[in-house]
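Hello again, I could really use a second opinion on something today. I've been puzzling over a protein and I'd love to understand its fold better. I'm sending you its amino acid sequence along with the backbone structure tokens. It would help a lot if you went through both lines with me. I've dropped the whole record in just underneath, so have a look.
***
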Amino acid sequence: MKTLLKQMMETVLSRAFLRDTTLIIIGCLIVSIGFCYFISPYKLVPGGVFGTCIVIHSFFPFMQVGTIALFIQVPLLLLSTIFLGKRLGVQTLIATFATPLMFNAVTALAFDTPEAMQALDPARMFGGHLDLTDDLLVSCVIGGTLVGFGTSLIIRGHASSGGTDILAMLAHKYLHLYFSTALIIIDGVIVIAGLFVIGFGFGLDAPVEENSWRLSLYALITMVIMNRSLAWSISGRRDSKMIYIICEQGAKERLREWILFTLDRTATHMQAKGLYTEKSKDVIIMIVREKDVCIITDEIRKIAPEAFIVVSDSYDVYGERWKPLPENNGMDFK
């Protein structure tokens, strides 16, 4: 028992853990600011857990958005543990609780009365000095950029807030949908729910403002900016990464099983030989999105800790699941 406690303390007090925790806390704060000041006051629903919370808040304005997020994220993490067998890392637990709590704190800081906080009225936020009602596009750009950048810091801290990704993984496992397809469907349902509830006032007692349905279009703009900001924050202008996994022959089958059936990806396998040892090696080449690199390398470390991994930029990727080969636009390259 003493040995276990000692190991836990050494891990918690290690420089790597403190660095990751600092990145996560800063990232959660930036995400909270982006949502609280530039997205939720304008009833934008850019998918995800917090998009769902903004819709629910329309029905229960007495509940803060961060509190609703806690009621959603904690059960989702439990579901991932029970049905997906995923271990809850300390970093993920920190991100799960830190973001909603900071969301509530940052929201309370902006409004001077409980009534104003319930209404999330941008005209009463910081005395109206941050009201961008007439400049929604500016609000989309700032909010989407902040949320994407903050999320990149959380990912760099080796954490995941789970959210709709967990539902997509459950749909992949039990409904046999592609993970990417399931994620698009889930986020699409959330955006459509925002359109009906906030745009058309479905289920609400109070009437909605004229042309509120346009908020869904701004929400789509926010989603695009969030994704691009996340991509650029993690790896600059590169949108994809190439991962080389050089491993012993025994580890190849374990990696193959995980890549094909858990990660729902494909890869290329080649045989090679060590220059010094002359021993046979297996080389697996994968093309992935930059936001998945940390998760994939961590899992490879668990499955094949002896593997040699190289991550490099991919300038562009053409083929199945990526982009079709470009046409020559009538030009002759012979």
In short: The first strand starts at residue 240 and ends at 247.
